[in-house]
Amino acid sequence: MYKYDEYDQQMVDTRVAEFRDQVRRRIAGDLTEDQFKPLRLQNGLYLQLHAYMLRVAVPYGTLNSTQMTLLGDIADKYDRGYGHFTTRQNIQYNWIKLEDTPDILAELATVEMHAIQTSGNCIRNISSDQFAGAAEDEILDPRPYAELLRQWSSFHPEFLVLPRKFKIAVIASETDRAAMRLHDIGIKMVKNDAGEIGAQFYAGGGMGRTPMIAPLIREFVPIHQLITYAEACLRVYNRYGRRDNKYKARIKILVHELGRDEYVRQVEEEFAHLLTQPIEPPLAELERIKAHFVDPAFDAAASDELDLTDPDFRLWVERNTTPHKQPGYIIATVSLKPVGGIPGDATADQIRLMAKLAKDHSFDELRVTHAQNIVFPHVRKSDLYTVWKALDEAGLGTANLDTVGDIIACPGLDYCSLANARSIPVAQKISERFGSARKQAEIGELKLKISGCINACGHHHAGHIGILGVDKKGLENYQLLFGGSEGADTSLARIIGPGFTEDGVVDAIEKATQVYLANKQGEERFLDTYRRIGMEPFKEAIYG
Amino acid sequence: MVDVQFRFRSDDAVNDPAVTVDSIGEQSNATAVRIEPGDDARELLPYLDRLALVEVNFPSWTDGRGYSSARILREAGYTGELRAVGDVVIDMLRHLQRCGFDAFAPEKALNEADAKAAFERWENVYQATAIDGRQAIWAKRHPAA
Amino acid sequence: MKILTGNDLKTGAVIWWTGVGWSLNVNDSTDVGEHGAAIIAREEGAQNVFAAYVVDGVKTDEGVRPSHIKERIRALGPTVRPDLTLKPSDPEAVNWVI
């Protein structure tokens, strides 16, 4: 894992001091709320429906047990005993006091964490593959490149007040586990025919009210030009992204309105110019960062056997684990989606327990996934039963990864001041309706995603089944969408028809799963069957 | 006319009236120009030799186009005064400076002590902007590179 | 009735205008009539509140009920965490929202 040097530490400490000063000026009345708001947002501090909310960055989703333990402690000390893991691999606290915030940031800085650029119209936390460094199918570990980009994007003087927020994801495997093409910039690290490492760039993806899949803008950016090319992409966006309408200000609109080819032409022109400027870090810097991401000391003699005699354990292993590149080890995902629970929430005790288990059994490493779950990336197979037992006792042993119970949901109207409808109660009802492990196993992989408004923080466009909450004359109403997907086969979901009440939408989903089971061929997932037979049979069953 | 509150240059102040980017071609004696957010700073490149002052206007500090305008001019070799005018706020002073601004004329005068702290705040920086003369952290980490 | 809500600057807590000050309880709200904007300007200026705005509400036997669900959730707390609402011991409280 990356470890700060004196410079990194100084940058974070300086930011804490700066924010402390900004809070002082705000409380003293030197800054109005209008003046303060963009500043606090760049430090991840929102005003939500009930209170201030603080979003803490987990860069590329990787953290160690010391960091995770502190996240639990902060939940106890400054919040109400829990935190919420988000779809961008961050954690949010819902009940923060402004006057405490500088102290919280100072505590975070002691474990190399921060809330820098977790909101605002700037380059946000760089997200990545939650299985980086452990996945069997990876070309290389994407995190050193994400870290290089993290440093470049932190306090970049030219790009702190962009037209709108800017999200970057970096992956380096065939399977896209980070919804890479639904980001403002998606980067896939690749090797060319000569075996050289480079970056494939996609630009102009995103969800929100105008969902778009990012087109490829460059096949191969040589690794020694990565930062320069990213800078060219951002400069064109900063200069020409729309600023007249907040809802048309994301880069996807620029790429769409200019056309992909014209955007590429402008970027290439800027890139050619910037290559004449000495702005690219030397490869030695990348090598320095890479040295932090070497494999942990795996035991080559570790047994590859798993004792699956306990049927509940067996179910969890089948559902929640992924093969590891190292024989004798396995990747385990902890579902933060217990039946009837709040997706992505974890109590302080649960957070600390996961930290301890990672310390004892996963080489001190954890990951946060964009599906709001937690990963132990490197568990020795012989330890897995012990790990699962401990998780299960703490309510963290739910075996439902990627099933209808593993719902992504935004905080919705229960917490969010932008929402039009609640998301969490819908998620709870669905997970209860499909609560039995047998039912979930029968339906198999079904990615269900709920957003409480068109900003789409719950990724409803990318759900095999998506739910969008709307306000219909003061009442909560839910639209249903089918056919979305992230990853290699990225597609955008389509609305199937008129909306439903909260209970109505749960019934409709049950009917949809029945249509799927009746029409399923072979090993088809819900999505595959839907793509083959189309929307009509589903509409008929739901509205007929 | 709004006063220049902070200036980091040793030459004499320039107070020629600034013309618009559109008119700089025909105003062949003009030595000062003002860039609005929607202007293309590259249109000034043929005239850099005769310019002694470029004002970049920030009607709102949250419109960041002026940061790119400034860097583009400096990258092209402009050495005259580059002045940020309009809604210039304390918390962005250091970042403006890093993009090449060396004079600041905020619409409303800023608190001197807070501004001084802001100018001095960031001892180290992650990026090389190639124009503010500061070494990036990566360059300090690899002095030989 | 027109009622006024906003947040406490230092804590962020949701507060309601009582006519003389600010309360955590929506039932203490007073009808501000046409004076909302003036009260907001004065109270924000004095830093007694920020992000304040006027909402519609109805006076009922049980108290003041904001007209829109968003403000009712704002008044009560998250419906999915009754333990963190203003009425943690009232199992019926959540129904007031809907």
Task: Describe the 3D structure.
The complex is a heterotrimer of chains A (544), B (145) and C (98). The longest helix of chain A has 22 residues, at 6-27. The radius of gyration of chain A is 23 Å and the shape is globular. In chain A, a hairpin with a 2-residue loop joins β18 (465-472) and β19. Chain A has helices at 6-27, 33-41, 65-78, 101-109, 143-153, 226-240, 251-258, 260-274, 283-290, 311-320, 348-361, 384-393, 424-433, 437-443, 502-519, 526-533, 536-543, and strands spanning 45-47, 52-56, 62-64, 82-85, 91-96, 127-128, 168-171, 185-191, 197-203, 216-222, 321-323, 329-334, 345-347, 365-368, 374-380, 408-409, 448-451, 465-472, 475-482, 494-495. Chain A folds into 4 domains: 6-109, Sulfite Reductase Hemoprotein, domain 2 (Alpha-Beta Complex), CATH 3.90.480.20; 134-290, Sulfite Reductase Hemoprotein, domain 1 (2-Layer Sandwich); 311-393, Alpha-Beta Plaits; 408-543, Sulfite Reductase Hemoprotein, domain 1 (2-Layer Sandwich), CATH 3.30.413. With 544 residues, chain A is α+β, with helices and mostly antiparallel strands. Chain B is α/β, with parallel strands linked by helices. Chain B has one domain (6-141): Rossmann fold (3-Layer(aba) Sandwich). A 6-stranded mixed β-sheet of chain B has the order 1-6-5-4-3-2. The longest helix of chain B is centred in the middle third of the chain and has 11 residues, at 65-75. Chain B is globular and about 50 Å long. By secondary structure, chain C is of the alpha+beta class. Chain C has one domain. Chain C is built from 3 helices and 5 strands. Chain C is globular and about 40 Å long. The mean pLDDT of chain C is 96. Classes of the chains: A alpha+beta (544), B alpha/beta (145), C alpha+beta (98).
